[in-house]
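Extended Data, record Probable chorismate pyruvate-lyase
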Amino acid sequence: MTHRRRLRSFWNRVDSGGIHQAPREWQSWLSDTGSLTQQIERAISKKLEVLVLNDGRQDLNSDESRYFHFKIKRCRIREVLLCANGEALVMARSIIPTPSLSGSNQSVLRLGTKPLGAVLFAKSRTSTKKKALRKIAFLKKRDCFWRIYQKKYPSLATPVWSRRTLYKLKGHPLLVSEVFLPALLNY
C-alpha cells in the first residue's frame, strides 16, 4: 500500500495560538480581520500608493495549490507593494483563480493601481464578512516564499512576518499573502 506524503506548511493558524509566536508589535497587524489597506491608511493618515510588480498568469507552488485542493495549477497572480511616501510597507501576493474572475467579480480584473482590499471590503460585498481562513508565518531566507518575495523586492529584510488569508468573493476563492516590511512599524 502506498501512502501519500502529506505536505508540510510553515503557516500557522491565527486562531490556534499562532499569533502568540509573533512579537507584540506585529500581532495587531497579523491578526486584524478587516481591510489591511484601511488599517494602514488610518495609521498613516493618507491614501496608500500601490506599485504593481507583476500581474499575470503564473503557476502555483504546491503550498499555494493546497488552498484550492490541488485542482488549479495556473492562476492570475498579482504582486504589489503598498507604499507611503515612496517607502514600501507591505508586499502582497494575490492568487485569483479564473472562475473567481467571472460575473460581477470582473472588477478585480481592472484594479490597476487600486488595492485589492478596496474590492474585497467594499460595502456592497458581504462574502468577506464571513470567517476567512487566516494563517501567519515567520519567513526566513531558507523559506521558498522569502525567496519568491525577495526576487520581486530585492531589499526585502530577513526575517519577516507574513499573513495569508483565503477570502471568498461572491462564493469564489482568492488567496492573499501579505509580507509586513519593517518600515510599517514606523506608523
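Summary. Strands lie at 12-13, 49-59, 74-84, 87-96, 133-139, 160-169, 172-180.
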